[in-house]
Records
---
Amino acid sequence: MTVQTPPPSADIAETLLDMGRRARAASRALGKLGAKDRTRGLNAIAAGIRAAAPEILAANADDMAAGRAKGLDAAMLDRLALDEARVEGIAKGVEAVAALPDPIGRELARWTVPSGLDIARVAVPLGVIGIIYESRPNVTADAGALCLRSGNAAILRCGSESARSSRALVAAMRLALGAEGLPEDAIQLVPTQDREAVGHLLSGLEGQVDVIVPRGGRSLVERVQMDARVPVIGHLEGLCHVYVDGAADPDKAVAITVNAKMRRTGICGAAETLLVDAAIAESLLPELTEALEAAGCELRGDALARAIVPAMVAAREEDWSTEYLAPILAVAVVDGLDGAIAHIARWSSGHTDAIITEDQAAADRFFADVDSAILLHNASTQFADGGEFGMGAEIGIATGRIHARGPVGAEQLTTYKYLVRGTGQVRP
Amino acid sequence: MTVQTPPPSADIAETLLDMGRRARAASRALGKLGAKDRTRGLNAIAAGIRAAAPEILAANADDMAAGRAKGLDAAMLDRLALDEARVEGIAKGVEAVAALPDPIGRELARWTVPSGLDIARVAVPLGVIGIIYESRPNVTADAGALCLRSGNAAILRCGSESARSSRALVAAMRLALGAEGLPEDAIQLVPTQDREAVGHLLSGLEGQVDVIVPRGGRSLVERVQMDARVPVIGHLEGLCHVYVDGAADPDKAVAITVNAKMRRTGICGAAETLLVDAAIAESLLPELTEALEAAGCELRGDALARAIVPAMVAAREEDWSTEYLAPILAVAVVDGLDGAIAHIARWSSGHTDAIITEDQAAADRFFADVDSAILLHNASTQFADGGEFGMGAEIGIATGRIHARGPVGAEQLTTYKYLVRGTGQVRP
């Protein structure tokens, strides 16, 4: 049976545990496949999604109707909506993952030690990955595909808004795997939106889940970090800063700031705070303000910024820690590079921060002293993206400190083991 | 003040939080130091430990007296005991860490993408590391030194048996750092053995702790994994297997098995289970048994093993999951390579497992299908050690799947950030 159906509510624990066991079995089977088998499976999945477009669109129409009835706002409905072009985009995304280099089995390092042992560090899958995410149905396909590319079994837990669309997508993906003789349990979708299911998943399902990847808003990520009994590769919010240094090229400063904030305001790499060096604030802030407002951005300034541009709304304390994901930008005038570094150390979520300057020494110090996953010099924060990094698809941008930071692509969904080749060595 | 004194018990939460804040400040200061400063600090620590030998030995004598009064067994007392030679060994260990390549700032990868952005992945410290460990006082110096080498601030929580020795060691280490003008709060010791303190540390101290490294027995590691609200680099037990394949060279099989079990029985890389291929069990098991028993090892066999060597004690189910850390070995006769792989998949702790065979195809399949941090072909499991891997000192052998597996040395105590150099790029 390839289509998963919801369990009776009393059986949630048993259902999840069974999913965990099947995921483990699938991950063992995946481990014995070669890169070509995984590529074949991914291409079959892309074809299967195309073939199932009518069912996927019908399911999405039901999600959209339920979303409208529930009063979802226009932005959320847009993220949820699928049409033929978007389904084709999802299939193309899976094909792009199929075209990525396979990360499994790569020799990451190899050396010989004085005892004569030959030691190799070789990439292997993480195992079973639980992915908990919100609304957008394309994440279902992206996450499943990235896990398969990296030899991992995926247990997906989608948001309730996209549950019908995700179920149709996963059914198509599993059908395609099964038809190719590949383990269809490599991609499973939790068949209930009951929150209890998330709790079971976070418990690790008696050791069957190796890693949890939460992808969503702050409350989801915080719940996961609090309750998970297995490792988490966390994706906190993107509270990204653009610092315009005294030695900035004004044209670059304006173009980058407007792009960083306004190209797309709803992504985690969008800038949320602009820091302007006091040394050039008087000359540059009016120009920056004008360009941002012309692009439709609301500005909220600190006292120093409002002294220069009095029309600006006054920023409150919480503006420095708010991920607007909207055309709003907090603006502070800071005391040079040190002031910018101190502001970022206090408020950044460790995601992505940029400096605009022609002073190489200032850029070097910004790179050394700011501790975020991604630092940019003279480029827009909106480049914080696995595709723009040349990593193909990504499952998100990790803001934690261990295992993976920044874009999490197929390579980041691996671990390694040591293969030690001897000739009879015993340890003295 | 460089010597830390215990707090009034009511103030444990505040004391720990203050330690966390001071560790964070020290980690920021460490981040601005260069490799030469860290090396200078490490050499000063080694000298400081030598100079403080009388105080350290006096404190250790008190620990030993308390340990005897508490009824610690001879093996535990031996692990706890220091003398001048052992203190010199601890100092030399710190000098060995000083001689290691500094892992911070290394460019791990660098590439250019079509947008023209130049992307570099650069190693940075994890930040603040909480290390929770048991009895042996040398861990105090090793862990503090490895954290300093990798630019991390350490909050150490030692076992109660070695508390006085550890306090004297940490006092010497902090004094040495302070005298060199380096941040002495880079190495702090929790000044109370109250278990409540561990709870606070595991909570992450309001975001001041980035990673917890537990190093100790199963109950410690399980408590840490259950209660930690921050990432854990876990070191579970070493339930290591030696599989003697039908195509094994009998001399290598005997020498490696005896060494893997008996060289030192109390370390995590010691073998706990011997698996013998049924194809050669009848000819080889008596010889293996004789050699192991001659070395002082007790054997506990399954029914098939006892059919060949009837004098063997009968193994019970729990023998397959017991880390003896003693001269006892569980023995099972398995149905060839597949039987060995199945036994290991069921019982291994994912630490270290070895195959003895002259059949390259069997070794290759063992390497592919067994999923442990370290796999060895024709070599003793006792090589599972950072020093033997050429990594210098280690803080333990990680058995988890994320961030680091196998020996955790200075390089494994780092993470990375991306430095992206642009020329004004905005994202289309």
---
Amino acid sequence: MEIIKHFFQEMGTLLSIPWSFVILELVGTLAGAVSGARLASAKHFDLFGAFIVGIATACGGGTIRDLLIGKVPFWLEDPIFLLTCLFGLVWVIIFRKMLVRQDNTWFLFDCIGFSLFNVIGIQKSLGLGFPTWAAIVLGVVTGAGGGVLRDILINEVPLIFRKEIYATCCLAGGLVYVGALHLGWKIEGAALLSCIVAIGIRMLAVKYHWSLPYVKGLEE
Amino acid sequence: MEIIKHFFQEMGTLLSIPWSFVILELVGTLAGAVSGARLASAKHFDLFGAFIVGIATACGGGTIRDLLIGKVPFWLEDPIFLLTCLFGLVWVIIFRKMLVRQDNTWFLFDCIGFSLFNVIGIQKSLGLGFPTWAAIVLGVVTGAGGGVLRDILINEVPLIFRKEIYATCCLAGGLVYVGALHLGWKIEGAALLSCIVAIGIRMLAVKYHWSLPYVKGLEE
Amino acid sequence: MEIIKHFFQEMGTLLSIPWSFVILELVGTLAGAVSGARLASAKHFDLFGAFIVGIATACGGGTIRDLLIGKVPFWLEDPIFLLTCLFGLVWVIIFRKMLVRQDNTWFLFDCIGFSLFNVIGIQKSLGLGFPTWAAIVLGVVTGAGGGVLRDILINEVPLIFRKEIYATCCLAGGLVYVGALHLGWKIEGAALLSCIVAIGIRMLAVKYHWSLPYVKGLEE
């Protein structure tokens, strides 16, 4: 146990986030990889394609953020992220017939993922000296960018531009996070509140079929 | 008035371009955001999707250029660009039924945008020490990249690869710009001439339906 | 002759690779540009579009790698790469009716390209201090990324995610390369062996219609 805790502490230092977040971050990464690999497999992508789409879904948002802020992508600094994605692919292969029954679990893991990625993106950006507004934008990029990259790779119109309200949840979570920090909260508490708010909105949105409207009357 | 002039001077210093260009740059940004948001709305993208596609159209070329030359994207350094894109989205929402009647105005604004983005891209690259040929290429990336990113996001084949001759106009404008600089012209004069040439070619192309040929006989 | 040798030596120093690789790298670049321009022309892309898709195919993998490792893309450091792509476009225009008869030659050039790009990507990453596993991943990105970028631009599902096994060949070649280096081989020898292995697997895959399986039972 001591070794595992030490490992996550090391990881936390590397990622400049509290070590207790690291394990949740890997849960979110796994959820992204499973969802991407599953979608790609449904479109008859081969194992390599499913692996790449899984990586893009899980790590794509953070990668776009890192490119924007001028850092080497986080998954090149520690093999744990690509290994987690590989594990996700293996899971899809082994449990392909049981994935539907696991849907609620994966939905929860996915919620942990996007809401936490959002906070990590904000925290990393603030740490590099970006202003608050830019950090919130970069949080949305981190939380919602993976889904966009996934949909580009599988040649679909990005889902979050039409149905999902991921980005709105990230924005709400981001505002809560920086608000709590400004009120003197510690990072851990602010992150927890931010995730609860973002996940709460998303769950309500799924339950009540909330979605953003579109501008009508512009069809070609 | 003094405050506004001061604001644009500050912006100009930040962007390393003459402050008088900044207001025209925002006009071009607005045109891109309106065109992107309009196109996305026509494809039933929700408000968030329309906002992102607007940003991609308006700021995408400059973003790709900044990533290539190793700089943090310009729109992360000042909120004015994202705010302009937000204003463009609001404009589309409010005036959606009058956009067709405003087409000539938006075409003009769009021309100001791409021709000026081209010059800004060249100037920024030269300022970082890139050789002239690379700066001209980066100008084309700045002027024409937004349209490519927009079309990737809305899952269409990039328009400028089949119909529009944006890139050719950028290339002509770029050659004129660096030529004028080499002849000892000041930046402002060279930029003005470059934009006139680029816009002129584009207007003639639209009027006379000019387009580049394609290599025939390779159909699958 | 002395001048040409000197030129390739200069290039080699610039690219941090043995100069003898440079000429083969340009052969690979040409193959990528021809394949991209050809595919784009078949979809009625105009000359500019065919040029860009050629560049994306030939230089896209190295560009993604350079963005990930925080370097200015290699093709912005020397005009020879874009000029090679332009030459590829001119070749497609002139020999469009003879390209089918040249198919075996282009297949060979393409094999030289992807296997060498893989090695160059690994070597460049190792030179920057990336760990071995990351360098191998970046080699795959360099060797296989161009095809993905090409397919995004022509709005198709990436071929290497469904049919081709480029990436598997790159991975095998990469393992051989770093293995040989660890055994004390010189860069040239390790690179040669790596390319032979990668090309060999690819040729066998084409001959015997090898492909990776996909995860069945997940269709929507």
